[in-house]
């Protein structure tokens, strides 16, 4: 059978109950972050003439505060993200600048090393040229008798060296650096000196009036080693000079070509 409501006047919910329900609904809306604007007429319809607090004002205030907090949180998060991005950008720029500085420093060092190596090579080359450049055995002289000149004065029938014009007592110099292998009487050469040059060739200085070096002594380019004279098989004072491939007689080579090859103008 059907149920029917008892007759009589309907009773309205108490104020306390209404307020409790309103607050629960507002709390639910506030938790979701939304307070619907249409709530106002709906609540108003419940009790059109009620002058008491319905809870709507509290809901609006709570919603505004929540919105402000959410916005502030969003702003803080954005600021933090921007700060992180700025730090990352600054760090990347610092790394780039450091790499650029290191690259430049490496280039400067490489250039300095290359320049230093070039200077060392140039100095070595200059020293090599200096050591390989000879001087004439007698300064300011000239060749009075050439190489391979024919005459009965020489046992071989021809001149095995060249003669430099020089009065007795004229200074005689080692044409280059080397080691003395002979210093003393040399028969037809008179007082003579033989030097093994640093390049492996030999030079000989004959008819000397005095000798200023000893066997085993190292001499340098331009160093005075003796004085010219008129000893041995000679017709007058001069310096006999020979260039050889070995220390012994008969290994002679053209002295003029030898000296010119080492930078001496003869």
Report on this structure:
By secondary structure, the chain is of the alpha+beta class. Helices cover 41% and strands 19% of the residues. The protein has four helices and ten strands. It has helices at 15-31, 39-46, 56-132, 255-261, and strands spanning 143-145, 162-165, 171-173, 178-185, 191-197, 202-211, 218-219, 224-228, 238-244, 252-253. Strands 1, 2, 3, 4, 5, 6, 7, 8, 9 and 10 form a ten-stranded antiparallel beta sheet that branches. A hairpin with a 5-residue loop joins β4 and β5 (191-197). α1 (15-31) packs parallel to α3. Mean pLDDT is 83; it is low at 1-31 and 33-47.
Name some characteristics of this structure:
alpha+beta; single chain; Cell_wall_metabolism_enzyme; ten-stranded antiparallel sheet; Dup_hybrid_motif; coiled coil; 266 residues; M23ase_b-sheet_dom; M23 family metallopeptidase
Structural topology:
Elements (H helix, E strand, L loop, with lengths): L14 H17 L7 H8 L9 H77 L10 E3 L16 E4 L5 E3 L4 E8 L5 E7 L4 E10 L6 E2 L4 E5 L9 E7 L7 E2 L1 H7 L5
- Topology, number of strands: 10
Unreliable residue runs: 1-31, 33-47
Class per helix and strand makeup: alpha+beta
Share of residues in helices: 40-55%
What gap, in angstroms, lies between the N and C termini? 153 Å
Which term fits the overall shape? rod-shaped
Percentage of β-strand residues: 15-25%
What's the gyration radius in Å?
58 Å
Largest β sheet strand count, sense and barrel closure = 10 strands, antiparallel
What average pLDDT do the residues reach?
83
Order of helices and strands: HHHEEEEEEEEEEH
- SS summary, helix count: 4
């Amino acid at each position: 059978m059907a149920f029917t409501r008892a007759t009589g006047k309907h009773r309205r919910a108490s104020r306390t109950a209404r307020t409790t329900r309103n607050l629960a609904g507002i709390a639910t809306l506030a938790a979701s972050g939304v307070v619907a604007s249409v709530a106002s007429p709906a609540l108003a319809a419940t009790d059109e003439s009620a002058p008491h607090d319905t809870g709507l004002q509290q809901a609006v205030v709570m919603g505004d505060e929540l919105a402000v907090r959410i916005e502030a949180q969003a702003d803080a998060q954005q600021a933090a993200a921007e700060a992180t991005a700025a730090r990352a950008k600054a760090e990347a720029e610092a790394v780039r600048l450091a790499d650029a500085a290191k690259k430049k420093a490496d280039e400067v060092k490489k250039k300095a090393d290359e320049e230093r190596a070039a200077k060392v090579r140039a100095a070595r080359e200059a020293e090599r040229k200096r050591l390989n450049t000879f001087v004439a055995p007698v300064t300011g002289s000239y060749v009075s008798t050439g190489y391979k000149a024919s005459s009965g004065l020489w046992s071989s029938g021809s001149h095995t060296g060249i003669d430099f014009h020089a009065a007795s007592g004229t200074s005689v110099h080692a044409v280059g650096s080397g080691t003395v292998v002979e210093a003393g009487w040399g028969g037809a050469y008179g007082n003579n000196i033989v030097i093994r040059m640093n390049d492996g060739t030999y030079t000989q200085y004959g008819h000397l009036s005095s000798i200023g070096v000893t066997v085993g002594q190292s001499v340098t380019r331009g160093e005075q080693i003796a004085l010219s004279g008129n000893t041995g098989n000679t017709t007058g004072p001069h310096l006999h000079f020979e260039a050889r491939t070995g220390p012994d007689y008969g290994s002679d080579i053209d002295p003029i070509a030898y000296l010119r090859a080492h930078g001496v103008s003869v």
